[in-house]
Design brief:
The structure holds two protein chains of two kinds. Chain A is an all-beta fold. Chain A has one domain. Helix content of chain A is 0%, strand content 31%. Chain A is built from no helices and nine strands. In chain A, the strands form two sheets. A five-stranded antiparallel sheet of chain A has the order 1-2-6-5-9, with no helix packed on it. In chain A, strands 4-3-7-8 form a four-stranded antiparallel sheet, with no helix packed on it. In chain A, β1 and β2 form a beta hairpin. Chain A is globular and about 45 Å long. The relative contact order of chain A is 0.27. Chain B is of the alpha/beta class. Helices cover 33% and strands 25% of the residues of chain B. Chain B is built from 16 helices and 24 strands. In chain B, strands 2-1-10-9-11-12-13-14-15 form a nine-stranded mixed sheet, with helices on both faces. In chain B, strands 4-3-5-6 form a four-stranded parallel sheet, with helices on both faces. In chain B, α10 crosses α11. The longest helix of chain B is centred in the N-terminal third of the chain and has 18 residues. Chain B is globular. The termini of chain B are far apart. Classes of the chains: A mainly beta, B alpha/beta. Chains A and B meet through β6 of A and α1, α7, α8, β13 and β14 of B.
Chain lengths: 96, 506
């Protein structure tokens, strides 16, 4: 997937931008995300309902996937059923 | 990718929060986002190939930047201080452009360019009237910004920054919405400087309110910092010097909200940073090193490192006040020799940088090597602990009979003389050595310039005989550009024609 691609959740308001993802299929609320939202919202898998936060970056354990949450929602992000985690960012002093 | 995402996220997260203050007018993130859409509609309608700004800083800079991004047209802020002939050449290179600012000057200098020229007031009023969220569809384009380099050594080059370079920089260095509501950043660098653009992007993404100063003046800076309770500021060294001079002269302002000052864009004299650390004992200082071609900062010296160096007795730690710090975690930096070989710590060479924020690209050519490294043309070295030190532009290195001489070491030695206020060392042509050292000095007011003999002895004793200047000029002032960068080509030209030739070193 091209960096910059935006994906929407089928189950909630979540939208993400791909920073890097390779060929991984991204899920939100337990359902595959896509560039277009389905006409009708689908029911969320309760195991993936912890919510997404705007501005947070989400990564997989291998560090091969990084997604930026640009719109928050109730679902949470995963790949093949493995939950993604918020990336730990070391704060840098403002330099400009 | 599109940098308009930065403003979109801020407007989504907290639409009513004030994001920008300029000339007393307060802009919420939503009002900026709407105006950017209005601007985008007008830009698309004009059919322009570039969106330009020929004006001091104002909300028009932010609206142009994001409006251009939404419209998918490169944004080109121009240096309004350029002479007519130089500006006319740049206007030619970006025609037909949609330009905000000095309409009379645009029409006079580029009458057949096919430009659409608007005054600041008209541009902002039209953008606000037309603007509504979603009224313009985002257009995908790779190039976000085209910046003409300051051209202190040659004709200006058109550096290109892609959306992906700038977004990588922001995502890698700034945490979204990390600023509290009482934080405000005073921005006094001009809109055509990379630091001026990076300040808009970083501040909006962190949601730190921007206090825009249209043009730098030390009294205006102090007054705005006090009135709007600025917590952060970015300055170039000359600005800091002028602010401190005013404070030393007795200018009193209530600056208790000030927490952090970042500086960069030129060499910071050690004397000046030491004085600033004393004058602002509770302020966090950060030295940022970066270039236009690297989307701003690539290395920084943080607040703790400043205070540790200030209090240190160990000369190696104290010397860090003269360092630009360590590379950002998201970039790699290497020092290489003229043949491109990597040099060990302590050895001086050319600084190379690699990372997603590095564009290293001009309209005319790409300067990246096959592995993505960008030769900065800055000379420097890295110490054993990974701190980076700059020693001037690689093109400014004096090559005397095969020996590389950094102008900075000679200038530092000259500045230790109590009667010298400013000094520059440059290469002058020499039949015997190829190049040799020429210096220009400025005596302190009311002081007599040291004799040529005294200067030669000073350099010989502090450094070595190969550094001893062959030509010496005494000047009232050295030539600087408006950002405080020394115009070495002018010093070189002056010394080339200087007739007083001192006895050469052995």
């Amino acid at each position: 997937m091209k960096p910059g691609t935006k994906l929407k959740s089928a189950a909630c308001d979540t939208e993400i931008m791909v920073v890097r993802a390779g060929d991984a299929a991204i899920e939100c609320g337990g359902l595959p995300m896509a560039e277009e939202r389905p006409a009708e919202r689908k029911p969320m898998n309760p195991a993936f309902a912890e919510g997404t936060k705007i501005g947070k970056r989400y990564v997989n354990a291998a560090g091969t996937v990084e997604l930026l949450c640009v719109k928050p929602g109730q679902g949470s992000l995963s790949i093949a059923g493995q939950a993604l985690k918020i990336k730990d960012a070391k704060p840098l002093p403002a330099s400009d | 990718m599109n940098i308009s995402l930065i403003l979109q996220m801020a407007a989504d997260a907290e639409p009513e929060r004030i994001g920008l203050v300029c000339d007393g007018r307060r802009w919420s993130y939503r009002s900026l986002w709407k105006a950017a859409h209005g601007a985008a509609l007008n830009i698309l309608k004009s059919g322009a190939s570039h969106v330009a700004l020929l004006d001091e800083n104002s909300e028009a800079a932010a609206i142009s930047l994001f409006g251009a991004a939404i419209a998918g047209v490169p944004y080109v802020p121009l240096n309004y201080r350029l002479a007519d002939a130089d500006l006319a050449a740049l206007l030619q290179r970006i025609a037909p452009a949609y330009i905000t600012g000095d309409v009379e000057r645009i029409e006079r200098l580029s009458p057949v360019g096919g430009h659409t020229a608007l005054s600041r007031t008209d541009f902002v009023a039209q953008a606000e009237r037309l603007g509504d969220v979603g009224s313009a569809d985002e257009v995908e384009q790779d190039i976000a910004i085209q910046l003409f380099t300051s051209g202190t050594t040659a004709a200006p080059k058109a550096a290109i920054l892609r959306h992906s370079n700038l977004l990588s920089y922001i995502l890698g260095t700034v945490e979204f919405s990390s600023a509290s509501e009482d934080e405000a950043a005073l921005v006094s660098v001009p809109p055509y400087h990379i630091a001026g653009i990076a300040a808009l992007l970083s501040s909006i993404y962190s949601m730190r309110r921007i206090l825009l100063l249209p043009a730098f003046d030390p009294d205006d800076w102090l007054a705005l910092a006090a009135a709007e309770r600025a917590s952060n500021a970015f300055v170039v060294p000359t600005m800091l010097s002028r602010i401190i001079t005013r404070m030393d002269e007795g200018a009193r302002f209530e600056l208790s909200a000030l927490q952090a000052i970042a500086y960069g864009g030129g060499r910071m004299p050690t004397e000046l940073i030491e004085r600033a650390l004393e004058l602002f004992p509770r302020v966090n200082f950060t030295n940022a090193y970066g270039l236009t071609e690297t989307s701003s900062t690539i290395a920084l010296l943080g607040p703790e490192e400043h205070r540790a160096a200030q209090g240190a007795t160990d000369p190696a730690i104290r010397a860090r006040l003269g360092s630009v710090g360590k590379p950002l975690p998201t970039v790699e930096i290497e020092i290489r020799d003229e043949d491109g070989r990597r040099l060990p710590p302590g050895e001086r060479g050319e600084i190379y940088v690699r990372g997603e924020q590095v564009s290293g690209e001009y309209r005319e050519r790409k300067a990246l090597d096959a592995d993505g490294w960008f030769p900065t043309r800055d000379a420097g070295y890295m110490d054993a602990d990974g701190y980076l030190y700059l020693s001037g532009r690689a093109d400014d290195i004096i090559v005397r009979g095969g020996e590389n001489i950094s102008p900075a070491e000679i200038e530092d030695a000259l500045m230790t003389h109590p009667a010298i206020a400013d000094a520059a060392a440059v290469a002058v042509p020499s039949v015997e050595w190829g190049e040799t050292v020429g210096i220009a000095i400025v005596p302190r007011p009311g002081q007599k310039a040291p004799s040529d003999e005294e200067l030669r002895t000073l350099i010989k004793n502090r450094l070595r005989s190969s550094r001893v200047p062959e030509r010496i000029a005494v000047m009232d002032a050295l030539p600087y550009n408006e950002m405080g960068k020394l115009l070495r080509r002018e010093v070189r030209a002056l010394l080339r024609n200087y007739t007083t030739v001192a006895a050469p070193g052995p």
